[in-house]
Amino acid sequence: MVRDASNYYTKFPKGDHAPGDIWANLTCFGALGTEPVRGVILTPACDLTNRKVESLTYLPVISVGQYFSTTAFLPTVYRRIAGLCSSANISWRAWDGYKYELPIPSELDVFSEKVAAIKDAAKREALLGGIEVFKAICSKDLVGVSRAVMTKFLGAKESTDLLEKIVKNSHSSDLHFLPADGFNAPYSAIPQHSVALFRYPQSVPLVLLDAANETPAASWEAVMRAKMERFPVAAMLSGARPIKLAEMEPRFFADLLTRYISLMIRLGAPSFDKASVERLLLEME
Asked: Which of 2, 84, 110, 257 is the most exposed place for a label (fewest CB within 10 A)?
C-alpha cells in the first residue's frame, strides 16, 4: 500500500531520455494557457534507446486546483449550477447535458446580478462560488481554484468526495493523479498534488530536449534562437530552459500508461440522443 510519495519518484534520474521522465518548463502550444507546464514522457523505451524517434511525446501535468480552471471541468460546474438555480427558483441559460461552451462575460454579469438578489444565504454563497469557478475557467491561463472556493461552491462533503475520486482515479477516465513529491523548490517535479491530462498529449522535437540536457541555463535563449529557423516550436521553449527533474517509478508509470492506452484504444460508437432514448423506453413493454 502507498502511504506517501517518497517511493513514487526518483529525483534527478541519470542517463538519457526514458518513459516516465518528468520535465518542467514544457509547452502546451497555448492549449492550456500560455505558461510552461510540467510533463511526463510517454515515448517507449525501445524507441528512445535505439534513437528510432525524432520527437518526444508527453502528457501535461497540472495541479488539481488548476484542473478546476480548465474547460474539462465545465460539465461538473454546469450540473451544479443547474441544480442550485432550480432550488433557488432563478432562471439562467438552458443546459441539456455535457457542454464545454464558456459563458460570455455579459451573460455572467447578468447572472451575477440575479444571484446577488437571492435571499437564501447558503444558496447565494454557493452560486457565488460557482461564478468564481466560471471566471477562473474563462481566464486565458490556468489560474487555479482553491479548495476553499470549491467547498463554497460544492459544499464540504461534495468537494471532499470529488477530491477523493480524483486521488483514486475514479472521477474521470482521462485524468491520472500524481501526488506531490515533497522535494524542495525550485527542483520539485510535482510541487503540488497534480493530474496528468490524457486528452492533451504533446510532442516536441527530440533535438530540443537533447539541447536542454546539454546547454547551460545562461545560454539557453541564444541556443533556441539559433534553432528557430528549422524548428519554430523552439520559440515556445525559449523562456525557461526545460529540465528533467524526476522519473516515475516503473510500477506507478505502468499504471498511468495502462490507463492512458485503455482510454485511447477505444473504438466507441455514437450514443443515442435524448429523444431516441425516450422513444426506445416507450417501446419497451
From this structure: 2
Domain check: are 24 and 159 in the same one?
A: no
Q: What is the dihedral of CA 248, 236, 49, 249, to 10 degrees?
A: 0
- The β-bridge partners of 60 are 39
Q: List the beta bridge partners of residue 55.
A: 205
Pairing between β-strand 243-248 and β-strand 21-26 as defined by DSSP bridges: antiparallel
The per-residue pLDDT string of the chain (285 residues; one tens digit each, 9 = 90 and over) reads 555 677 899 988 877 899 999 999 999 999 999 999 999 999 999 998 888 999 999 999 999 999 999 999 998 998 899 899 989 998 877 555 557 788 888 888 889 999 999 999 999 999 999 999 999 999 999 999 999 999 999 999 999 999 999 999 999 999 999 999 998 888 899 999 999 999 999 999 999 999 999 999 999 999 999 999 999 999 999 989 999 999 999 999 999 999 999 999 887 777 788 888 889 899 996
CATH of the domain at 195: 2.30.30.110
H or E element, residue 110: helix 105-116
> In which domain, by residue range, is 90 found?
71-167
**pTM exceeds 0.85:** yes
- Nearest partner of 257 among 40, 52, 102, 105, judged by Cα: 40
